[in-house]
Specification:
Bound molecules: alpha-D-galactopyranose, zinc ion
Helix content: 25-40%
Shape: globular
Distance between the termini: 6 Å
Structural class: alpha/beta
Number of helices: 16
Length: 694
């Protein structure tokens, strides 16, 4: 089955809406009525309500006021507008911080924050947990069966850590469960180094700028603990909600994974019913928007892959943000293009921050559907309303799948470890950027991609790119080896298979558990200065049919081909003639290895050959202009093909011989199609993925 059920059976259409803060306008009842009129005009059918409403819901300890929320939910649903009802834990009222300072977060320097901002609470504090339990219980009892409510929006953008005594105790308990004995912990953390051996559990604390920060295993475990503690808090929030109505879906809105690296989002899969995230690209930063488009496509694919089903675009700006270095407006066409990009990659919603601009405080200049002017006669409102009309007609695309045959392996443990490694290039080893460059080559080909973790099932893919897999356990090594033996194509690079899951180096030769799979031994590695260059010289007649030279930069590994075939060598320095690109045939499959960081031009040429050799189908079997991609969703009967133009100029795309209809006009299309500047075309055709599993 390639069609997933809708996120909510109450609203089995594309959800279109925004974060809505009626609690900021309680002094003026006209605002709610005017908002409802405007929401209908804008084609909005869903609002996220109550995200930061704690002070309005519980103005004094134990004194609750739900009347305003009753009225908001009733009036909305009477008008066909549904609600993601938020738990308000993202910020707490001043009375709570004043009476119970323990609810406030303690920084790594052991200083407790003052009241203020948001996301400023301890996930361990028994008082905070109890206050949240009471609040969520009351919300559930009152609203879990309210006709307006389609699901729970849990808190808001969980993130950050707390170093208070409760959190320290929690860390030690977590470590005891993991290691059982101190000996095991001391070994895993290699504490004999600098006499760091612990002789009692009570000696262990979280990493600190003025304390311990040099023990890599310790740092890594703290990051893992912070994820687990946050998930534990999230579970604590969800329990009273599910106790009342287990069928109401829960989500929590996540953040762009670069720069935010604080939580291993994949681990939230089990506690959430649907993944949602907040996307804020900086469009129009450059002549072509390709770089932004690729970055956000990567994020969309990652969030979809977490649960292997459609996700939600919970927030995006209808115009500009007010927190990026430069607040640029979306140029004509970009609102539709950017929103449909999310849909193309598997989102079943298009939602915004925010519905109405707040009048004061730090987000008063952040884009909104309704500006301070207060009416619908704005460019932004028209863009939103037009998209609303289109989304309302797209119900047959709802719940459809993304048939990815290629995957990119991206792992949080690895990103944490690689950043902490100290060498070989402390000025920047660029793990995330490198992964996204490999992904970009597949994006440009118009190949659907899943972004997977080491725990995922690999057998469904034909091609897996796993750049810089520095942290690689024996188990992951075996999995990748099996994947190749069974016929898969793996792409690996330098700085792989270096440490195990405890951040301890593999002994006996890198790339450790990947050595047999890649068929190489990496003897030495070095970082290059920004001005240093080397090059890959492709060997004559190499089976990939690549020729010439490609620039190498940042990192060079000196490797020996053991069972691998050398496809290209280094050009310069004492590296000259040594392997720079190899392929190893193992079982039914093959594994490529790049010894050095190569630029995008090489990756584009390389993946073009490798994807086709691995039998990975492009969405449209055609050449796409630079900055244009094609993505697909399918129900197994019809494919919905999105051709998205981020090139910064009008483009033409020659379709393949498929039987295409223009989704918006219903007209038959063939030959060449035109894409406007910031243009997008949706096409449908008989499915090429019949008989597949979602
Ligand atoms: C985040 C938050 C929102 C809002 C937006 C502004 O995504 O979740 O509350 O602050 O940023 O872009
Ligand atoms: Zn704490």
């Amino acid at each position: 089955m390639l069609r997933h059920p809708p996120i909510s059976s109450k609203l089995p259409v594309f959800m279109h809406g925004a974060d809505y803060n009626p609690d900021q306008w309680l002094h003026d009842p006209n605002v709610l009525e005017e908002d409802i009129r405007l929401m209908k005009l804008a084609g909005c059918n869903v609002m996220s309500v109550g995200i930061f409403a704690w002070a309005a819901l519980e103005p004094e300890e134990g004194k609750f006021n739900f009347e305003w929320l009753d009225q908001v939910l009733d009036r909305l649903v009477e008008n066909g507008i549904y609600v993601w009802l938020a738990t308000p834990s993202g910020a707490r009222p001043a009375w709570m911080s004043q009476k119970y300072p323990e609810v406030l977060r303690v920084q790594a320097n052991r200083v407790r924050n003052l009241h203020g901002h948001r996301h400023n609470h301890c996930y361990s504090s028994p008082v905070y947990r109890e206050k949240v339990r009471i609040m969520n219980t009351k919300l559930a009892e009152r609203y879990a069966f309210h006709p307006a409510v389609v699901g729970w929006h849990i808190s808001n953008e969980y993130g950050g850590d707390c170093h208070c005594d409760y959190c320290q105790e929690g860390f030690r308990e977590w470590l005891k469960r993991k290691y059982v004995t101190l000996d095991a912990l001391n070994h895993a953390w290699w504490t004999a180094f600098w006499a760091h051996t612990y002789t009692d559990w009570s000696q262990i604390e979280s990493p600190a700028p003025h304390g311990e920060s040099a023990v890599h295993g310790h740092n890594l475990d703290w990051k893992r603990y912070v994820t687990d503690r946050t998930i534990d808090f999230c579970r604590h929030e969800i329990a009273p909600l599910k106790a009342v109505n287990p069928d109401l879906p829960v989500t929590t809105n996540m953040m762009e994974i670069v720069p935010f690296d604080g939580l291993d989002y994949r681990k939230f899969a089990d506690v959430l019913d649907v993944i949602s995230w907040d996307a804020y690209p900086t469009w129009h930063e450059a002549a072509s928007d390709k770089e932004q488009a690729v970055k956000f496509a990567f994020n969309h694919d990652l969030f979809r892959t977490i649960k292997g089903k459609p996700f939600m675009l919970m927030e995006s700006t209808p115009s500009l943000t007010n927190w990026q270095p430069v607040s640029k407006l979306k140029r004509p066409g970009m609102h539709k293009l950017s929103s449909l990009q999310a849909v193309a990659h598997g989102s079943d919603t298009v939602q915004y921050f925010q519905w109405r601009k707040s009048r004061g405080s730090s987000e008063k200049f952040h884009g909104a559907v309704v500006d301070h002017v207060g009416h619908e006669h704005t460019r932004v409102f028209r863009d939103v309303a037009e998209l609303g009309k289109l989304l309302a007609r797209m119900t047959d695309i709802l719940g459809t799948s993304t048939p990815a045959e290629a995957a990119v392996l991206f792992d949080w443990d690895n990103r944490w470890a690689v950043r902490d490694a100290q060498g070989p290039r402390n000025m920047g080893i660029h793990y995330e950027r490198t992964v996204i460059e490999h992904y970009a080559a597949l994006w440009q080909l118009g190949v659907p991609v899943d972004v997977i973790g080491p725990g995922d099932d690999l057998s469904r893919y034909k091609l897996i790119a796993a750049p810089m897999l520095y942290l690689c356990s024996e188990e992951t090594g075996r999995k990748l080896e099996r994947f190749v033996e069974e016929g898969g194509t793996l792409v690996g690079t330098y700085w792989s298979g270096v440490v195990d899951e405890n951040d301890l180096c593999h002994l006996g030769g890198f790339p450790g558990p990947l050595r047999r799979t890649l068929g190489i031994w990496a003897e030495e590695i070095e970082g290059l200065y920004p001005h240093d260059r080397n090059a890959l010289v492709l060997s004559d007649g190499n089976p990939l049919g690549l020729t010439g030279e490609y620039e190498a930069h940042e990192i060079c590994e000196l490797a020996h081909a053991e069972t691998a075939e050398v496809l290209g060598v280094y050009r310069d320095d004492f590296y000259a003639g040594r392997p720079a690109l190899t392929v190893n045939r193992l079982g039914q499959g093959r594994a490529y290895y790049m010894a050095t960081r190569l630029q995008q031009d090489f990756l584009d040429a390389f993946y073009r050959r490798v994807a086709s050799e691995a039998g990975v189908a492009r969405v449209i079997d055609t050449e796409l202009p630079d900055g244009v991609t094609a993505q697909v969703r399918t129900d197994g009967e019809r494919d919905y093909v999105f051709v998205l133009n981020f090139s910064g100029a009008p483009q033409k795309v020659a379709l393949d011989a498929g039987d295409y209809l223009d989704y918006e006009t219903g007209e038959r299309v063939g030959g060449e199609i035109a894409l406007e500047l910031n243009g997008v075309r949706i096409l449908s055709r008989p499915s090429r993925y019949q008989g597949r599993e979602a």
